[in-house]
What does this fold into?
Amino acid sequence: MPSAAEQLGREGRSSSETGRKKRMDMGNQHPSVKRLHEIQKEVKEIEQQVAVFSGLSTDRDYKKLERSLTKQLFEIDSVDTEGKGDIQQARKRAAQETERLLKELEQNANHPRRLEIEAIFKEAQSLVEREITPFYKGGNCISDEFEEGIQDIVLRLTQVKTGGKVSLRKARYRTLTKVCAVQEIIESCVKQQLSLPLSNDAHPSVSKINSVMCDVNKAKGTLITLLMGVSSNDTCRHLSCVLTGLIADLDALDVCGRTEIRNYRKEVVEEINKLQKYLDLEEEANSTHAYDLAQNQSILKIEEIRKKMKEVNSLLLKTENASDLYLGSKAELQGLIAHLDEVSPGKNPCIREARRRAVIEVQTLITYIDLKEALEKRQMYPEQTAAEHQSHKAVWTVLGNLSQIQQEVISFDGNRTDKNYMRLEELLTKQLLALDAVDPQGDERCKAARKQAVKLAQNILYYLDMKTDEWEY
It folds into this structure.
């Protein structure tokens, strides 16, 4: 039996011989086949850029990629096959692969969701163009319409479905990053309350710091227009130079050991540094995979909590007599809500939305348990239920139906085209109509019970819609 060293030696010689044979085969290849391999290698490098392209067909990068792929097609077409069938097939495959990438590039740029993202972004641009004037005047006055408009745009962008497509996730992330940056700048202006400014008479340096602060407020307006792509007169590089110059001016001031003036200068410098960070957003979006949230720590925590929630869910629905599990399950679910509250979404609205949805999932299970307990408790006291107002009984009949429907909704794992989805939607609508037909006849308990039942039915319907809206982070 050969030793380990001899075995390794044989494997090394075998590997070396294989490599030599491969190189000899490459050396013996027809020049046209060699050329096709070279072209395919270049096309492979372009393929990675096409896969993550998140722009539009009017973008410079799109035209650059399109030109590169078209050039490769011409190169492939110019390869002489000399009438040989194997070379003709190789050329055909290379051409088909390049044409596929051209089609993928076009689809990425013209995908309906990509155009939806762009349409929302254009609304944000229009809003900025209308409302940004106060910044240029060096003021901090922002209208409520501007704040509410930006918030609405952030929410709508968050809800755009990407279907897990990398180019769409990247487009949504880049757009959200810009709009959220604008939102943060606005909020900093509205909420900002520097401990100073001091009076110009306090010290000669104060006048200069006040002047710089006015320039900083104007720079915020310029930064917003740059982030939103509505400024053709400024560039990020120019604004960066301006901000660097302002810091240099502040550093050159002699504050003579005056603590209050030194603090004032420090706060203004911090404001400038914040603006500098926003200028790096575009580069960050292109150079990192921040738009892919699957490996984000907050998302991983949310998914871990959802996994535990599903385990509780499965146990509750599979156990025939689950009443013994209610207390422990509800305590565990409430603990999961507390864990979700501890998850930090940072400044990412998609993570915030993922957390919100997870909370709704857990709360739905808690509500399901609460209703089951209430219905079982009601069956334990038939004398009391017999004496109830007829309208009150009618509400409880609907609640019993809702409990059964809710169990089906929690178990449902289909989409909106499924017949079962339409059936569940119809059943919930019928329960709402049944509640609407209940006449409380002045009975306050009945009014309160009906109101709660309507809210429950609407929440179940909302949960069904949420489960099937195909949203993903």
Observations:
- The radius of gyration is 32 Å.
- Residues 20-27 have pLDDT under 50 and may be disordered.
- The longest helix spans residues 349-379.
